[in-house]
Structures
1.
Amino acid sequence: MKIYSWNVNGLRAVIKKGDWQRFLTTHSPDIICLQETKAEPAQVELNLPGYEEYWNSAEKKGYSGTAIFTKESPSAVFLGIPKDIADKYTLLDQYGDTTKEGRVLTLEFEGFFVSTVYTPNAKDDLSRVAMRQQWDPAYLEYMQQLESQKPVIFCGDFNVAHTELDLARPKENRGKKGYTEEERTGFTDFTKAGFVDTFRHFEKSGGHYTWWSHFAQARVRNIGWRIDYVLVSRDIIPLLKNARIHNETMGSDHCPVSIEITGIN
């Protein structure tokens, strides 16, 4: 089974440029998790034979949003972070209510859960770091709640470079958005809880990135950040065949990431 995650930064734009169909033809994922769709289903003309579509769009038009397209029918679909967990945390700030921004979508299958997340950005002035210190533990608690039932695969744009291996210029960016101690600690807490960063499980070196600035030919020069991840429960590790970054795939300022697993239903 091939599971992909991609922050498309506007699905309609990726389709218009032709990159969406090229991606599907090349990779044919069994499950594709999207972030920052910036659309509602009725606004998008998709060519998806063989896939079922599930969406969690933001209340604000053209903003945020997640979706999962799957060849296998799920047994249940869950939008957002459950209310019992969300109520424990402050997930609203001066920028808005993150629980209404379509940032989390989860499907249940027979042997596992798949969840996709579009984590709030800390902002250039770090004014949303406080939100991140609420959001990250809330989402972690949700993943732990699911894991108490069956293994979990969760993926998306976490808006943080976890270690200095995960960005091209760690010294220059230390303390800036996406590389603050608070954000990095939030991600470390996922791994401390036992979840595994699948790409880092296989690849111990740096130089592998999933997002590049539009400025100064950053993508061509590979001056990037690894902020898109697929994490899994430890029970899935024996089934994990590979974990990859597909930086050849164009259409967004992010590229897709994927895992392949065997023997799971």
2.
Amino acid sequence: MRWRAEMANNGPDQESLENALLQSLGQLDWPHETNIAISLRQGRLLLDVDLPEIEDMPSSQWTADRRSLQLALKPLSKQKIAFCYVDHVCSLILRLIGHSMATSTAIETVAVSAYTQRKISSGQSEDDYVATVEISRTAWDQIDRRAVDEIDPQNLLRRHGARIETNGRGIFLVQQPLQ
């Protein structure tokens, strides 16, 4: 009884919670390799996410030719690929937040810093943080997840203070990661 009382007073076991979270996130299927580092401190979960690269996005799409009743493969513009990438990143972040919140009620806040590798002028790759957001359980609980088809991930994240900025061509601008 004393051990249970101590556990109740001290809160959840951090290591067990982190392991449960890693297991939960590790079981998710991702369309491209997505690496995640976690840090859990006093109910605040920090996710550091290595995103897939924009080069991993499809560069063409199938369209129907109504006259010949055939499918044709059409190349996408660089701007369309960039906009698809922004949508992919926002959806990925929203998925991570949702699964993290579902893992335990001890997680009161989820903070996500997402980065990608980009080539710099020297030809080397450099990590650039391109999206950050921090959302509390209270704010998360106000989202009507039953209407998931009607949720626009990018607008939802922005409404909750996400820093997701792009230039006119749809390319992500660099952000300061959360600590």
3.
Amino acid sequence: MRMRRKKHLDERLEACDDVIISMYSEDRNFKTFDDKKNYLDTTEIFGNDNPLYLEIGCGKGSFATELALKNPGINILAVEKISNVIVEAAERARETGVKNLKFLLGPAEYLPRFIENKSISRIYLNFSCPYPKKRYASHRLTHSGFLEIYKKLMADGAEIHQKTDNAHFFEFSIEQFSQSGFKLKNVTFDLHGSGFEGNILTEYERRFLSEGCKIYRLVAYL
């Protein structure tokens, strides 16, 4: 079922053009897209050279906004490919007045064109779509194809932080990380029963917790 287009979407997106950067272009071929670099000047965008974090699949932006507010010494790029969703995230961020958060509109496959290699200090994958059918495995954000993209973007010492409520997806992710040369730490099959401190809840996480679901988490690094 397709999401119904939000009322006045174009006007709302235009009103948020100071915090939304579009990654779309006429060339939708991911293979050739990577050859046409258009790196973002994040120093100009944020006005500083603070460490750069990336959240892929930011949804309505509650995690990215709270992360930015709690960590003014880092810059955050939050990626979302659905206009209907990113507009709410951008509006939320603008209401708070947060300055160290911008949004990238487009799919993760486009990131190599806009993000310079070895520039990202941390990547967040929060409750990514698990695409449960095997034939869609390559769409999962922890599939080896995406992990190769992240490898190029990650600075020395960078980490990937993943959270999900889906046990099968989590097991798949562990396998893919390991096969792609990543090491794992802080792996937990029950985040909220582990005593972990400093967790920032996402919209999905709040819902899953209310339904009694366990939350799985890991940190991957090279």
